[in-house]
């Protein structure tokens, strides 16, 4: 399992549980440009900055792990570790709040615990509570007007990033050994980056989302945070499926070098660093440079109609912007499908930025929805082909 660490936007985008990864700003993370612009704003106030738990938790409780097997059996792999869960995972007997009091008020306690949480408990970890998140998993900053905004331990005046903000802060503040969250449009990657910890976003569909409230089923994934890469690996050994040994031995890095034009770091500065880093890694090939924008333009024909026609627009950049637009439109459509009835019935009170996103989702028509799904299917096939991963 590969990880990387940084304290800038676009920290980690692990595309598969296999040993291949795309380095750079991931294709589906083009929306990170929007995130970066939004999160440059600094908070003027910080609720909960003096709290012992850094404002990371909505609710504290203890779920004991499964009993240890008697000797001479080996101890459970997560024995002795504590973890927290984002307020989007079901825990039996507790109401899953989705980051919003009106949601919590109008729903019943969960009848069972989410599959991912159960697996962690069965392997020796102890759950110590639920963490703050952006309402409905629709935010990027980690702020929550109802429960307060978790304080980033290193720089408490800065936003923690969202939407899995409380989970990231609980780990960064050393309150728990690891925490789980979800990633739809960067909800694990962004707070991991902002809080300066390790974060892992699993491939879509690899980890069960049974017992997890859905924002958008085409993009929702389970992820987790840790300060120590060895703990990140231990959690991954429980949540991720075991791969055949011959697949695990393959090591190939693909560098989406054109994506660095969206950041302040040029590929000319980053590629030599990566080359030096992998020289000491056994079995790795030299990085392969790919213009991912042009690759997508050539392999996702349904995206052509969404690309800008401006002669001043670079072909690859136009493609990535179009992909981002389709992604956001599809996310909005699925959010509307999942929650329109409840939102129109309850009319929940939300922060202004969240309300704007809810309004955009609920009130936008989607004449191109079939094409959006076609783009998604073609893109997945193209990336599987690029990474030489069998479908």
How would you characterize the overall build of this protein?
By secondary structure, this protein is an alpha/beta fold. Helix content is 35%, strand content 11%. It is built from twelve helices and nine strands. It has helices spanning 32-39, 101-105, 115-122, 165-172, 189-195, 229-239, 245-248, 267-279, 292-299, 315-346, 352-363, 369-387, and strands at residues 21-23, 57-63, 82-86, 126-131, 178-183, 198-201, 221-226, 253-255, 288-289. A six-stranded mixed sheet has the order 2-4-3-5-7-6, with helices on both faces. The chain has a three-stranded parallel sheet with strand order 1-8-9, with no helix packed on it. Helix 10 (315-346) packs across helix 11 (352-363) and helix 10 (315-346) crosses helix 12 (369-387). The radius of gyration is 21 Å and the shape is globular. The chain starts with 20 loop residues before the first strand and ends with a helix. Pfam families: Amidase (PF01425). The chain crosses the membrane at residues 20-37. Keywords: Membrane, Transmembrane, Transmembrane helix.
């Amino acid at each position: 399992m590969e990880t990387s660490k940084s304290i800038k936007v676009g920290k980690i985008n692990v595309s598969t549980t296999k040993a291949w990864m795309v380095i750079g700003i991931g294709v589906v993370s083009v929306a990170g440009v929007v995130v970066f612009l939004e999160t440059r704003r600094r908070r003027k106030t910080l609720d909960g900055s003096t709290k012992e738990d850094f404002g990371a938790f909505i609710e504290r409780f203890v779920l004991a792990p499964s009993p240890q097997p008697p000797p001479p059996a080996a101890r459970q792999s997560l024995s002795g570790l504590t973890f927290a869960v984002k307020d989007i995972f079901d825990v039996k007997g507790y109401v899953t709040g989705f980051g919003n009091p009106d949601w919590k008020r109008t729903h019943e306690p969960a009848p069972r615990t989410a599959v991912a949480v159960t697996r962690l408990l069965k392997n020796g970890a102890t759950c110590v509570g639920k963490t703050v998140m952006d309402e409905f998993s629709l935010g990027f900053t980690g702020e929550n007007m109802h429960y307060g905004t978790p304080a980033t331990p290193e720089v408490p005046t800065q936003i923690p990033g969202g939407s899995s903000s409380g989970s990231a802060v609980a780990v960064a503040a050393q309150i728990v050994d690891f925490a789980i969250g979800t990633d739809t449009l960067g909800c694990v990657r962004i707070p991991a980056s902002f809080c300066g910890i390790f974060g892992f976003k699993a491939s879509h569909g690899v980890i069960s989302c049974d017992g997890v409230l859905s924002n958008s089923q085409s993009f929702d994934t389970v992820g987790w945070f840790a300060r120590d890469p060895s703990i990140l690996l231990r959690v991954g050994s429980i949540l991720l499926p075991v791969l055949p040994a011959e697949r695990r031995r393959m090591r190939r890095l693909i560098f989406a070098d054109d994506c660095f034009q969206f950041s302040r770091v040029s590929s000319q500065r980053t590629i030599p660093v990566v080359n030096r880093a992998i020289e000491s890694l056994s079995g790795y090939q030299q990085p392969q440079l790919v213009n991912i924008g042009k690759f997508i333009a050539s392999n996702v024909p349904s995206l052509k109609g969404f690309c800008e026609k401006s002669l001043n627009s670079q072909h690859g950049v136009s493609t990535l912007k179009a992909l981002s637009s389709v992604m956001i439109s599809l996310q909005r459509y699925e959010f509307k499908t999942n929650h329109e009835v409840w939102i129109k019935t309850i009319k929940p009170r939300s922060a202004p930025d969240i309300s704007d996103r809810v309004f955009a989702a609920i009130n936008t028509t989607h004449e191109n929805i079939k094409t959006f799904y076609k783009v998604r299917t073609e893109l997945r096939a193209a990336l599987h082909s690029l990474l030489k991963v069998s479908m």
